[in-house]
Amino acid sequence: MPSSRLTPCLLLPLLTVLSGCISHPPATSSNALARPASATQDGAIPADRPGAPIRATSPATAGTPARVASPAPRTDCHKAKCIALTFDDGPGPLTSGILDALEARKAHATFFVLGPRAQANPAIIQHARDLGMEIGNHSWTHADLARMGQATATRELTRTSNAIRRASGQGPFSVRPPYGSFVQATPHTGLPFVLWDVDTEDWKNHSSAVTTQRALAGAHPGAIILMHDIHPSTARALPGLLKALQGRGYTLVTVPELLGPMSAKKAYHSSTVRR
Ligand code: NI
To answer: Which residue, of 123, 134, 140, 177, has the fewest CB within 10 Å?
Structure first.
């Protein structure tokens, strides 16, 4: 029975208990169009450390959290079975094909992009926007925000937001911290954090079949599914995965459509909608 569940939003002070949720994948670079500033000589983004903990370093912030503007939803996720597919670490050479697959199924998704790649590929960002996709901020260097000073982390995010804004005339709606790792004091961007509750581990399995199986096994109304638009196996999986999810009655929406208005002081793993 499809009640949607999950702890929709996790107040930042509670983040210490969430380390079990974290397994953010490494961005590989074999198909990267643009190299982040901290890329290694072969272009690789510094390897992820799956399991990097989310840490809270300061007490809860009092007061009413600021609300973040959200576009008018095309789908009422109180009525429809909604799922948000998310793609991290691009845009890259595979992103346009992924956009084509989404467009062919009249599906929408969210792309959490790296600043240098957004800067190098503004046409892809703009095309994604034109198709109704949402663009989020995945930092500039793909470094662990929890392991840098607040000023540096803020620069990482601000620089990326500016690149997204320059590419498409509109800034990102949220941040997905690399590795799902951040500290309460990190943000200073006025943006909420969006994580996930279904991890396909496409970065690790490099298998269209396994990626599809993991997405379908975790699918539920309100789910946020993590994938990457830089892996060929993910791009290959997408047409079949979209067909399978839609065949099960799911509507594929962007994260803002799924979550509705968000608070800049919260982190989200899935929808709060109860069905
Ligand atoms: Ni990433």
So the answer is: 123
Predicted local distance difference test score (pLDDT) of residue 274: 44
pTM of the model: 0.78
Distance CA 275, CA 94 (A): 35
Looking at residues 121-139, what average pLDDT do you find? 97
Active-site hit among 88, 144, 197, 199: 88
Ion ligand 1: residues, CB < 5 A: 27, 88-89, 178
Centroid of ligand 1 to alpha carbon of 7 (angstroms): 22
Contact 148, 186 (CB under 8 A): no
**How do residues 184-208 score in pLDDT, each as one tens digit?**
666 567 899 999 999 999 999 999 9
Per residue in 245-275, is it b (16+ CB within 10 Å) or e — as a string?
beeeebbbbbbbbbbeebebbbbbbbbbbeb
Catalytic residue among 228, 229, 231, 269: 228
Q: What is the pLDDT of residue 31?
A: 31
The residue assigned the tokens 């803002």 is 256
Ligand 1 centroid to residue 227 C-alpha, Å: 9
Whether 108 is catalytic = no
CB 54 within 8 A of CB 196: no
